[in-house]
Design goal:
With 429 residues, this protein is an all-alpha fold. The chain has one domain. Helices cover 62% and strands 1% of the residues. It contains 21 helices and 2 strands. Strands 1-2 form a two-stranded parallel ribbon. Helix 7 runs antiparallel to helix 13 and helix 20 runs antiparallel to helix 21. The N terminus and C terminus are likely disordered.
Length: 429
Amino acid sequence: MRINIRNRVRVKPSSETTDMTQIAPGFIPTRHRKSPDFLKMLGLVSRVAPAIREPDPARWTDIGVALMQGDPDMDALLTAMQAHGMRAARAQFETVLSHGIDAVPDAIPELRAFFERYAAIPKWLDRRRIERGAEVFSRCGRHSLYVGRDVALLGGYQASAFNRTLILTGALQKGPARRLAETVQWSLDCTAPGGLAVYGIGWRSTLMVRFIHALVRRSVAARDDWQMADWGLPINQPDMAATLYGALTVPVLGARLLGMPQTRRERDDVAHLVRYVGWLIGVEERWLADTEAASLAQLFEFLLSLTNPDETSPLMAVPLADEPLSRPYPNFRWLRGRIERSMHLSIAWAFLGGDAMRKLGLPKRVLPWYPLLAIPVNLARHTAAAVTPGGRARLARRGRAAQEAYVRGLTPQQHTAVIGESVVEPKHT
């Protein structure tokens, strides 16, 4: 995979960026509030998932303070790279990412220390669980990607402060198809066989996304139109963790709700994979869970704080909802585009509900026809595979092929890199 960083946002040198030392310790931005919509859901959800409950005051304060916290390791590395000269340091970063630290004998000390740390294996990591979790994700097939698109990504546009980060870094100009393809491709890199081995495709993609997050964080925080006191630090800890769970945990949950049987061990193996990806991408370990139940409880806590829909929500959601209308189908483009749009809206309505759809600028009343058709088909297909010798392995291979075909169908260009939420290039110093 060739990694490419395109020039979209210029990053000011560290001396010109916002001085975070001026922020009082324990400061909580005004965006931190309990979402009325998620509080309404709390009673119902807690009945079927007791682990999901409203955070206590201390926990709630911790989440609010974390809205001002970024990624200390990568932020410090970015500062060092700028001090050494960004052009040369970035070239070293990309060479190490592709060929290993030994390929750059004159690497700056901070770069060497960073890669040595994240090439080391955490004591808690179980490679067998990682591979099993990746196999479960593949076995979910396209339905995991549909749920990731229509529930996590689309529903995530209710987080208005996060939307503003995306808008300021060119998400509207980039278009929904490209951002969707990049996000999905990153999830496929992380769940590829061996993808999370050190210097594997998912490992490299995740560290590149982490680097870009740091560039965006510094660039946006330095802007005069970024309201730090209201919105917090761009791409902060809860933002990163919620996005992580939305990209990798919610799709597996959604596939299960669409008829795919999953054992508790399978679900927890996926959670273990997500925990490792989160560690690589810069999420603090206190926000990472090792079981699906704890992961979903963590995500719900974040959504209580982050879900604040405003005028930016339809700006982001409507183009994504209409994205199928512009896909490069080889034939019957008009008809297929409208069927795909209807399918995705039916999934979104089934999971998000009419009120959330309205706030996203989407139809409030939609017939959930696709989930109703998918559930019995998926249940029969996965049940048959479970009792057939080699059935699950074949289903995983077919599911992976379907996922890769879905990404290829999003845009006519070949995607050569996963580049996260925004594409930026630092100002050369």
